[in-house]
Every structure is written in structure tokens, then in C-alpha cells.
Amino acid sequence: MKIKRVFLARKARKNKLAQQLIASFKPGQLIESENVLLANAWLRQFPDPWAEGKQSLFLADFPGRFLEPCPCAREYYSCGYWNLHPVVGCPIDCSYCILQGYLTAYPIQVYLNLDDLFKAAVKFRTAHPGTRLRLGTGQLADSLALEPELGIAAQLINFFQQEKNFVFELKTKTDHINILSGFAPSEKIVVSWSMNCGSAALTEEKSAAKIYERLSAAQKLARRGWLLGFHFDPLLDWPGQASYLALIDEIFETVPASQIAWISLGALRFPARLKPLLKERHPESRIPGGELFPGRDGKLRYLRPLREKLYRSLLNRVREHAPRVLVYLCMESEQMWQNLLGAPPGLIRKELALPLSERKHFRPG
Amino acid sequence: MSYARPLEPLVNSIRQIGQVSPVLCRKTRQGFKLFSGFLRLEAMRKLGKKSVLALTWKSQDLSEEQAFRMAFSENVSARGLNLVEQAMAVAALLKLGLSKKHIANSYFQPAELPASLGVVESLEALNLLEHDSKKFLVEKAISLRCASELARLSPADRSALKAILHLHPTASQFREILEMTDEIGRRDRINIAEVLQSRELKTILKDPKPPAPQKLERFVKALKKSRHPHYARLQARHNRLCRQLAIPAELKIIPADFFEEPKYQLNLALNSQTQAREIFQKLLSAALSPAWKKLFELDDED
After folding, report:
1. What is the pTM for the complete model shown?
2. CA spacing 20 to 30 A to B234: which of A98, A119, A134, B77?
């Protein structure tokens, strides 16, 4: 994941983080750009500006809100997650990535005003002292893909391991775990992996770590005592149920269930407008061949009976290994949560935001 | 820079009022080289004229690129360029050594044509298409996106699609067929030619009896079923269960969009009070049957 160039505003050159980041780049790799639209225009000289954008950083202050509830569509049951976005964009080129159609910027945007991010978290905790939150940086970026170069994850771990009200998640498709070697494991920090069958990861998750590399990284962290999460998201229709079940078996053979903080299941969904771009940028992708129809939120998703069957079989297999591991669904209806998960959705959501030691129902091992 | 332009209107016009606009030529060592007005020249020939009105430049006074720019501007302002003509313009400009960026910015943008680098690249690719495909693109005013998808296919796939072109689909029908065959191919890891070799599709295409529109309708229906087999099974199951319920024809049970939820709407057309009573009674007994229960257990495999 080589970064070819850095766009930055003149003002940003004075920022300490920016200076650290650009120190290893040659002058010719630095492009002055007052806003991301100018960087976009520059990148449009390439036939695939998305691919070039994934190898470019844009450094600037973020004027908006750093901490926001995960925008689960109103039509579906929210798992209560909150997003933190010090970085928006990702060097990994997943065919199905909604960022391709969702973001208005090609380069990976790295926000320099991290102090404001921490202030936002403190402000939230002060305003809602009784509220527990599960939050993470892996929704609009890969939490570890650009680490340790960015050095942001370390600052976040330092901050959130001291904070009582939050459970903080670093979500990744890489094996960049060296950054964690300087830290003692904390039950307030969960490192999680997006998982898919090996064949799907090869075709659809270009430049991500291979599944065995992700699992190996998870195993190393588990041995050091870290808590882990696994996200079967997006589940695809073509690798077949048996491949996913084998992957679940492999996970439980590799890491102890007692260190799994959560497992999420989410079948593929994406806005319809992404499909032409997906086909064009990823001609080898099998995703457009799926039986995808508009759901309640207008996004394309597999037919409900197909999703339900896949969830049920995966869930049963997880329960065979570890009946008390917390499993939840991503962007599914409350009815689906109720039908499949065997516990009130509200209870699952509440326990997700608690460290393992404070949970009453979902404490594996 | 003309492709699939009908000559007859121009012939008629020149026959009635004569040649109004001169053709444009460069004088080179080899003689006069026409660079704009090919259709006019063709029309004049057809009318048996021995001479044409022409504006000429010495080659040293007008470079090849300047000449092309004049022809391009004249054609764009006079009649516009269809997709294949735009592709021909890109090919000619690339041959003159211009960069794609320059073509986009200096030719397409001022002419108010779509002018990104991506557009120029897509147009360049259209030059590889065979004559039948190009003709179809122009006749049906196919969009550049759809045309690009066609150009991305292998010659074997395009050749297989000729059978569809003979059924005269509209632009939107063709786009839909192209999309479905591509997606089936991606799903089953086969090419489009192989998709079209499926027994059902092949039988429809080879059947000499039905007229083209009917054949096209049957073909699209079969393709949809092949593209969305689970959905087709859910629909068939729903229809079967509704038949088993033996409810009156006035009552329709309408599933949620794409069976996203086990929820139904009842659509009822009533003519009289007595009829209402009869329908509700039948509905009550239907609601006690196993088929009614099955309606709420969405499964495409039972």
C-alpha cells in the first residue's frame, strides 16, 4: 500500500502531524491543494482516479463532527455503533466498497485536528455520563491500513483505554498489528477483522491481507490477551454456505472464544448507483451476478430468504462453538434480529457497548 | 466524419436548390484532398454533377490539424456528431498525434460534447466495433455507457449478440439484455456467448415461427428467469399458494416488494354487499388452510 503523493493545503504545512507525515516524501510528491475538490480535479487526469486516489493522501483540518452515530438506515435496526473518522478513505480496493460511490473525494483524507476529535469524545461523555458507547474508526476507513505511518491509532488507543464510557474498536482487513506491541491489552479496546471466504477475499478484496494472514494476526493478538471481533460483512452469495461455515470453524480453532467480543453478520448491500462503477473498475468481480434487489432503504441486497438462510446457518455454527459469544446483525430489520438471534435486540445492543467483564448475558468462556 | 447518415435528404435538397455550402479541400502534392463535405460530394456524384463548389487551401497555409478542426466544428454545428462519428473524430485526432487530454479539452469541451478523459477513452474503444454493432448504436441512439459495455466484450460475445440485434430491440431493451447476460456470465463464470447457448435461450432464438417482437418478449422473459432464479421461484411459489387458497378472482394477495418481508396487501374489488360477504367467508376459510401459513414462511425451496 504505497502512497505516491500527498495533497495538502498551505496552512496544513505548519501542522505537527502533517510535518511528520510528509517528512518521508520527496518534494515532487507533495502537491499544494487548498481543498479536496482541487485534488479530485488533479486526479481526474488518470483513467481510474479512484485507484490513484487510494495511493494519495489529502491532509487538512476537518470542519465537521468527528463523532457520529453509524448511519444505519431508519428502516433497519441499529446496533448502536458510533463512528469516529480521523481518516476517510482507504488504500484497500474492495470491489464492493461503498466509499467508491459514497464519498466525494478520491484521495484518502487524513484529518489533522485530532484534538477536536478527543474533545468531541470528552464532550459526549460529559453530556451523557450514563451512556456507554461502542465506537470505532473502521467504517469510512481501515483502522490499521496506514499504520504505523499515520500514528493515529496509537493516539486513539492511548485515549480510549483510559475512558470508562467507551468500547473502542479498530477494524481492519490487514495484518498491521505491530502498532499494538507497545500497549497492554485492555478490555476497552477491541481489534476486529472483516472476514470473508478465501476465494471471495482474493477476487473482491484486492490488496487486503489474505484470510490466513488476518487470522494469524488475530491469533498473535489473542495470545497477548487482546479482545477480538469478527465481521462477516459483506456475506456474499457465491462462495457458498459451506465455505463460510469452514471459516467459522477455522476462527474458533485459531482463537479462544473467551476473547471474542463480538461477531457481526451482514449480507452484501450497496447503493444501486455503485453497480456500474463496480462493473467498470472490477471486471472480474462476481458481485454484480448476485440476485440483488432494492431493500427498504433502496440499497441493493440479496433476497430475504437467501439472507435469512445464510445468517441462520452461520449463527448456528457459531453457537455450536460458543453459545455465549455475542452475535449481531448489520443493517437488518428488528424482526430479523428477533427471529434469528434468540435474545431481545435491545439487550444485545446494550451488551455490545459494555466491556466483557460488565456483560451479564454474552460473556463467552 | 460521417457514419450512417442518410444521403437522400441531401440529394433532394441539392436537386431543388443546388449546392449552397462548398466542400473544403487542402491542396497537396498529390492533388486536392477533401477534408469536409464528404456527404455533399457523394450527393453531387449521385446527381451526376461533374463539378462541385469548393474552398481550397494550400497545404502550407492550413495544417492537417487546422483542417480537421474546421471539419469538426462545421459538422458539430451543422448537424451534430453521432456516437460513431465522435469515435472516428477521436481516432483521427489521435492519429494526428494529439493527446487524449488535449482532445477532451480543445475539441470536445468547446463543442459542448461530454469531455472527460474517460469519455475520450470510451469513444476510442468504439472504433474496434464491427459495422453491425456500430450501425445498431447509431440507429437506436444507444448511450455511450451501453456502447462502451458492448465494446468491452470479446468479438465472439459481440458476434453472439448479433442474433439479438436481428430482433430489433429498443435501446432500453438492449441495455437490459446486455446487463442481464453480463451478470449471468459473471455469476456462472462463463462468457456471454455461452450464456446465449443455454438450451432455453437457444431454442427461442432459433425458432423460425414467431415474429421478432414476440420472440424478443419470450427471450427477455426467459433471460430474466435465468438471471433471478430464486426470485422466479418465489414468485411461482406465491402464485401456486394463491391458487391452493382458492380465493375468488376479485381478491388479490400482493406480496411485499421482492418478498423483503412476510407481509401482504389484499386488493379487493367489490360490486355488491352479497359478493363482499361471500369473498370474506372464502377468505376466512382460506386463512385456516396450510397454504395460508406457508405464505408467511418465505422460502424459495419448498
Report:
1. 0.86
2. A98
